[in-house]
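Encoded backbone
================
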Amino acid sequence: MKKISMLFIMIIISIGLFSCSTSRTNDVIVASSFPIYDLTKRVVGDKYEVETFTPAGVEPHEFEPTPSKVAKLHDAILYVENGLGFEKYELDEEIKNKTLTLSDGIDVIYSNHSHDDKIVKEVDPHIWLSLSNAIKMMENVYNRISLIDPSNEAYYKRNYLNNKVLFEALDSKYEETLKNAKSTYLTTTHEAFGYLCHEYGLIQISIMGISTEDKPTPQQLSLIQEQIKDKGITTIFSEELQSEDFAKSVSETLNIKCGVLNTIEGLTDKTSSDDYLTLMAYNYLQIMEALC
């Protein structure tokens, strides 16, 4: 059993503070997916009700809302999205005019992967898997909500700064541990951890692309498996919202371990009591065990 550090005690305390808020107004903010909901709720606290647009347990990459569900966004005071193509559905101009895009101001990274036997350069939308990006995303929420509700600007600023301290503490834990990692290769099925790897000097080797629909050809899979063997990689990670079958197949073929990381794209029955920080702390423990 790993000893619980003060960092994780702080995170547990933050969950209690986070979950006790109750809405005092009828105004609703709609967040496109779970990470956007979590980062938004941390800042707005109990001043607004925050709802998640993507249903629980649904892969956001694959979510296609009905027209009637999209129409309900007209009732929200604000719609908050990730951007960078993560939300695939189209919105009308009225909704676009009250949309906050949390990727604004964040430096993006790109992926070169195979799609329909062609190499495609595509922006990586998984910005929230960098803790420093997540802080910037909360700052974007703070700036916008303070314009909408200036009378409570001090409240929103306090929420933002309190959460920033917690995020920076976990970020420091990642950096301190991974700078001495025995391996710098993080091997995953889904190419979702590019920002995390970039943050801490890791190299991501992924079998699928940015979208879980981007699967390799048999020849490409063979080359990736050779790369995994040549670099002495000991663990391949699947993800929480996807089946482990593919990762297990590769791990059995190469006789390496199969782990699970959480892309924090959504919650499941297993993670229903978690939040962004606890899931990033979980990822930290998994990565530390595999690389250190």
Summary: The beta strands are 28-31, 49-52, 78-81, 99-101, 110-115, 118-123, 185-188, 203-206, 235-239, 257-261. The chain has two domains: 6-108+127-171, 174-291. The CA atoms of residues 217 and 223 lie 10 Å apart. Confidence is low (pLDDT under 50) at residues 15-25.
